[in-house]
Amino acid sequence: MKKRNYKNRNIHALIAFLISFVLFTGCSSSHEHTWDEGTITVTPTCITEGEIVYTCTECNETKKETLPVSEEHNWVTDGTITYRCKSCEATFTSVGDLINHYGNVHGTSGVVWKTQDYVCQDCGEVQTLDIDDNGCTAAGGDC
């Protein structure tokens, strides 16, 4: 009868375990991780946190970090311009109606004051900006 060599079988099992451990955990922990610059997987908004994933350049292990809520809004506009009376804040959709208003209500030929509303796509906040004669907003966004 042939004698079995259990010592070699145990060593092979140990090696197989270590190899599978490294493959499934992604890292043998024998090095200090060198993280890449990270990839933003969830962009933060003015109301939600974001997420960035870093990958080790040596073993491909990943780690996730939370990005804070952004202080910036995602402003959009439909392009509608509103004309406002500088005396009483009444609003009009045409410059002609505003000029008539000045003459009929205030008895003057007031200044044309154009504004444009911007809405944050994420939180719904509305920001009204003045528009100068060149079509530029006070924030300089549409020049």
CATH top level assignment of one domain: Alpha Beta
Number of E-state strands:
8
Percent of residues in β-strands:
25-35%
Instruction: Identify low-pLDDT runs.
Output: none
Helix content: 10-25%
Radius of gyration, in angstroms, nearest whole number: 33 Å
Q: Major β-sheet, in short?
A: 5 strands, antiparallel
Continuous helix count: 2
Quick summary:
This protein has 143 residues and is an alpha+beta fold. The protein has helices spanning 6-25, 95-106, and strands spanning 39-42, 50-55, 62-67, 75-76, 81-84, 91-92, 113-120, 126-131. The longest helix has 20 residues, at 6-25.
Task: Walk me through the topology.
Layout: H1 6-25, E1 39-42, E2 50-55, E3 62-67, E4 75-76, E5 81-84, E6 91-92, H2 95-106, E7 113-120, E8 126-131
Antiparallel strand pairs: 1-2, 2-3, 4-7, 5-6, 5-7, 7-8
What does this structure look like?
This protein is α+β, with helices and mostly antiparallel strands. Among the domains are: 33-72, no CATH class; 75-131, Double Stranded RNA Binding Domain. The chain is built from 2 helices and 8 strands; from the N terminus they run H-E-E-E-E-E-E-H-E-E. Strands 4, 5, 6, 7 and 8 form a 5-stranded antiparallel beta sheet that branches. A 3-stranded antiparallel beta sheet has the order 1-2-3, with no helix packed on it. A hairpin with a 7-residue loop joins strand 1 and strand 2 (50-55). It is rod-shaped and about 105 Å long. The termini are far apart.
